[in-house]
Specification:
about 200 residues; alpha/beta; Rossmann fold; two-stranded antiparallel sheet; about 20% strand; globular
Length: about 200
């Protein structure tokens, strides 16, 4: 399987009442990022599209699935680590005194909701399932930065999911076989959106 794993485009900030997970739409710049990404991927021979069930991933995939006439497959296991947090703020809008930043600096694994092993297992199982269901195909997978970091971490065998940063619409290219072999071909490919990342 050829996997093109993408981080979603830039969303809006969103705050919801306690108990409801923030699930923001794309911002104006995010919609532009999604469109130029679709322009690039339209010529990649993509046969299937998988998305996180979160709105920012679904909306990022939308221009491509419409262009290719594909039905995206939602996968819960690809949801971001902050899926239950009632506030989402793009990192570019957070100062060092923001509560999320302070929490992260005190405990880096707090972004995983206090259960990093469960998050890692969920992500690994999700990608293993995608590979198993799509043998011999080229698949675009729209998900999130922490999901991509953990997936890459498991492939490279290092212990730090924060080591590589994934930009909005950055592409991770991986060749994956059903016997568990994963080969990284490209990390954080962003030339197509560099002018929109500012």
């Amino acid at each position: 399987v050829e996997l093109l794993v993408l981080r979603h485009a830039r969303p809006e900030a969103e705050s919801r009442p306690d108990g409801e997970g923030a699930n923001p739409p794309l911002s104006d710049i995010g919609r532009r990022q999604a469109q130029v990404t679709a322009d690039l991927l339209a010529g990649e021979g993509i046969e299937h599209v998988v998305t996180s069930t979160m709105r920012r991933a679904i909306e990022t995939a939308d221009p491509l699935v419409r262009r290719l006439g594909l039905e995206p497959e939602p996968v819960v296991g690809l949801e971001e680590s902050d899926r239950h947090r009632s506030e989402y703020v793009p990192a570019e809008e957070m100062g060092k005194d923001h509560a999320i930043v302070r929490e992260f600096l005190e405990d880096r694994e707090s972004v995983f909701g206090g259960d990093y092993p469960a998050f890692r297992l969920r992500v690994t199982d999700a990608f293993d399932g995608i590979v198993e269901r799509n043998r011999g195909r080229t698949v675009a997978v729209y998900c999130h930065g922490m999901v991509m970091g953990v997936f890459l971490q498991t492939i490279l065998g290092h212990d730090d999911p924060f080591r590589i940063y994934h930009d909005y619409c950055g592409i991770l290219r991986v060749t994956a076989s059903s016997n568990g072999i994963r080969t990284v071909r490209c990390v954080n490919e962003t030339a197509h959106v560099r002018h929109l990342l500012g």
